[in-house]
Amino acid sequence: MIFDLIKNRRSVFPAQYNNKPIAKADIEKILEAANWAPTHKKTEPWRFRVLQGESQEKLGLFLSLKYLENDPNPKEFKAKKLIENPKRAGAIIAICMQRDPAQSIPEWEEVAATAMAVQNMWLCCTEMGIGCYWSSPGLVKHMNDFFEMNEGEACLGFFYMGYSDEEIPEGQRSPIADKVVWMD
């Protein structure tokens, strides 16, 4: 049931991942789920770059160096975490958004469509028993120095994925009634 899948979706972080690899066919299935997200005027703005193996290590080193270059008070533990987290993942998907060249819709709608694509990926991972989370560090603004991006394309973050042996706790939410106003 989709409702149960939605309620069971959780953030599972790189520190929780074991070293089990993720099959290419599984990653392709997750990306196909993303491709079916709603999109206003069918702009399909989501773009993805899959990083595995050596490219993950390169990403970690790049992020750590950019952090050290740009933060006026860098912390050693954060620089180390930026290096280590990508190596722990079974795969990382760079989440990008390609702005419609005609700008036929507001940019926020294309960001929202990309976020819906990520939600589809997250739900698919949950169904497949793959832990994941969306990281959106400020360093994403430098990603055009790491990989080639098209005109009007922006990186919105990284979708870390990996298997975990840990028991994932149940989620907690405050009641929906606290967030809804019924209008007559």
TrEMBL record:
Keyword Flavoprotein: yes
Cofactor list: FMN
Keyword Repeat among UniProt keywords: no
InterPro entries hit by this protein: NAD(P)H_nitroreductase, Nitroreductase, Nitroreductase-like, YdjA-like
Keywords: Flavoprotein, FMN, NAD, NADP, Oxidoreductase
Ranges for domain Nitroreductase: 6-163
Enzyme nomenclature, EC number: 1.-.-.-
Domain of life of the organism encoding this protein: Bacteria
Family: Belongs to the nitroreductase family.
Name of the protein in its database record: Putative NAD(P)H nitroreductase
